[in-house]
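Forgive a beginner's question, but would it be possible to get a protein, spelled out as residues, together with the matching structure tokens, please?
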Amino acid sequence: MKNEQIYIENLRKSVSDRISDVINEETIEHIVDVDLVKSHVEDKKASSFHKYYLKTLKDEKYYFKVNNFFREFKKEYSIQGIDNDFLDKLEGCKDNILNDIRDDRLADLYFKNFKRAEIRHGSRTINKELGSFFSKLVHTFRPDEYCALDNPIKKYFGLKNESFFISFLIISAEYIHWANDNNSIVQEIKNRFKQADSKNIIKHERLTDLKLLDLIFWSKANLKTEYF
């Protein structure tokens, strides 16, 4: 095995081990009550955002119908530091962006549009990496395969100094592998979560394993709701 393969495998194992440390039979109750219900159902801001998430989820018709999709997307996801010129540029190449996502040309999409995006900053233009924007957009149309990664979650998994794109691929892959290997735990969490969400705010029939794990680790990373 080549050195780079060994390196990637070690990162993957580290992420998988972290997931298992956080989610197990002993932590299910805390995860459902705090990381899911309290953070994403009872919190009005979070539940309001989830309505937007569901509105756009795998909806290509909506994507093309809305003339300012990317401005709306940026606003709803509270993504900071992006000017309207850049958003309008994305709007002008909607077809190419969605085709890249459909055809799994994610590296091309990332390096072409999000790795060194030209952003107006006052009177000058700067290059800025927009990895979180990229991951959330990809997740919108491929929610079973790719996570909606943000920097706090990346850091939470010990990948702070790693490439955003590599981290995105690793965490997405390990979410899938872990969920498949721990199906009974995932189903128990889903069942309890659904029962606790009496108004079905989450629309559980549309909740993918990746989104479930995203919700849990968003709460862990952003709100520091650790289990002790």
